[in-house]
């Protein structure tokens, strides 16, 4: 990693933590002002998520889908094409993966093979669905935000239709699918924490996307297209191809997120309303400043806030909607370009000055060595 990239990554991480700190400060003051028992509520809000092994495991489990959808939106954010279909992809991929798992349940496939097939199905669903708004945007100049939002509604109702007419279990009182086969479930790990093993899939995805973003030609093209379209055109980069491919790859990760969520945390498919994890991923990508390496950090922080809100809602007198205010403050601070922007520029400038000084010193040493060599040669002659 270059020195400039290292500085940018470090400052962005500090920006996230400072934004969270400011939002928490406002939250604590507000809780103290409006709650009948502010000390208890504040303690539950801050420490409640760590008060039991189960809650710590819940934070990690909640961060897993946030990580997948956050990676999805890092791609669309990178090329400045806000394809918001990640929300619908997450729900629809869970539906199709559940249908596939139930259909293959009697095939006797070993668990590793079954899981690989289902992850591939989820990825394919994400790929194909994200192609729709991406293609309409390039081909017909359709507003990609409007198209993807409408597509989310279509996918939500399509998922319910598939559930009702292709895999509904009539033996239960609520609307739900037949049981997902045991061979298709992601096992729990870390003992009493009961974290679904999609955790490892998410870590592999983060590492893969980090390499893709910063170590490959496609990652470079994608970042150039998003940050400087005119330069990208002048450089001969295929703009439309790069933009479409970025959205397709992002859709793959949203589809894998829906797959891991349904196979890791549910016995049957019962999603009849949107999970909102897609839009949570957009929030994570904004917090991470489209840097995939920071996505897990942002996902854990958001999950921690959500679990804290649940604890306060169940044990205090504060409505869970209060957390929306906290999230809004965090996003406003992190999205503000100049929030700690001067500090980052100052660090980069100092690093550049230091490098220039070192280069001049090296050049001076080389010149002195050459002069000494020349003088020695003349004295010998």
Strand residue percentage: under 5%
Gross geometry: globular
Encode the helix/strand succession as letters: HHHHHHEEHHHHHHHH
* Mean of residue pLDDT values: 86
Count, helices: 14
Biggest beta sheet attributes: 2 strands, antiparallel
Instruction: Please estimate the helix content.
Output: over 70%
Overall SS class: mainly alpha
Number of separate strands: 2
Rg (CA only): 25 Å
Strands in their spatial order, largest beta sheet: 1-2
For the terminal residues, how far apart are their CA atoms?
A: 49 Å
Unreliable parts: none
List descriptors.
single chain, 381 residues, mainly alpha, two-stranded antiparallel sheet, 1% strand
Describe the structure.
The chain is mainly α. The protein contains 14 helices and two strands. Strands 1-2 form a two-stranded antiparallel ribbon. Helix 3 (53-78) runs antiparallel to helix 10, helix 7 (198-215) crosses helix 8 (217-227) and helix 11 (277-287) crosses helix 12. The two termini are 49 Å apart. The model has no long low-confidence stretch (mean pLDDT 86).
């Amino acid at each position: 990693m270059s020195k400039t990239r290292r500085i940018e990554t470090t400052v962005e991480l500090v920006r996230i933590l400072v934004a969270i700190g400011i939002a928490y400060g406002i939250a604590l003051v507000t809780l103290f002002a409006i709650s009948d028992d502010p000390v208890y509520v504040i303690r539950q809000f801050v420490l409640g998520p760590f008060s039991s092994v189960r809650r710590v495991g819940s934070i990690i489990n909640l961060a897993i889908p946030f990580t997948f959808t956050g990676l999805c939106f890092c791609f669309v954010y990178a090329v400045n094409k806000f394809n918001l279909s990640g929300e619908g992809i997450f729900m629809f991929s869970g539906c199709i993966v559940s249908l596939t798992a139930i259909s293959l349940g009697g095939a006797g496939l070993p668990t590793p093979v079954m899981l690989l097939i289902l992850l591939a199905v989820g990825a394919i669903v994400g790929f194909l669905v994200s192609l729709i708004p991406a293609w309409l945007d390039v081909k017909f100049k359709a507003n990609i935000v409007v198209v993807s939002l409408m597509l989310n509604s279509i996918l939500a109702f399509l998922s319910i239709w598939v559930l009702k007419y292709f895999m509904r279990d009539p033996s239960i009182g609520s609307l739900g699918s037949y049981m997902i086969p045991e061979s298709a479930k992601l096992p729990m790990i870390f003992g009493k924490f009961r974290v679904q093993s999609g955790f490892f899939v998410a870590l592999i995805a983060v590492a893969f996307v980090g390499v893709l973003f910063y170590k490959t030609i496609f990652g470079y093209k994608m970042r150039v297209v998003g940050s400087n379209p005119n330069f990208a055109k002048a450089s001969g980069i295929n703009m439309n191809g790069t933009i479409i491919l970025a959205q397709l790859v992002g859709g793959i990760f949203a589809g894998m997120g829906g797959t891991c969520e349904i196979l890791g945390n549910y016995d049957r498919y019962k999603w009849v309303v949107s999970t909102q994890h897609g839009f949570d991923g957009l929030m994570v990508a904004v917090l991470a400043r489209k840097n995939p390496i920071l996505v897990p950090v942002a996902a854990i922080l958001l999950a921690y806030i959500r679990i804290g809100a649940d604890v306060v809602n169940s044990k205090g007198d504060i409505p869970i909607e209060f957390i929306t205010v906290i999230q809004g403050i965090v996003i406003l601070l992190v999205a503000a370009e100049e929030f700690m922007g001067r500090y980052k520029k100052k660090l980069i400038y100092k690093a550049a000055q230091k490098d220039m000084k070192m280069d001049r010193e090296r050049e001076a040493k080389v010149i002195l060595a050459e002069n000494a060599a020349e003088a020695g040669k003349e004295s010998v002659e």
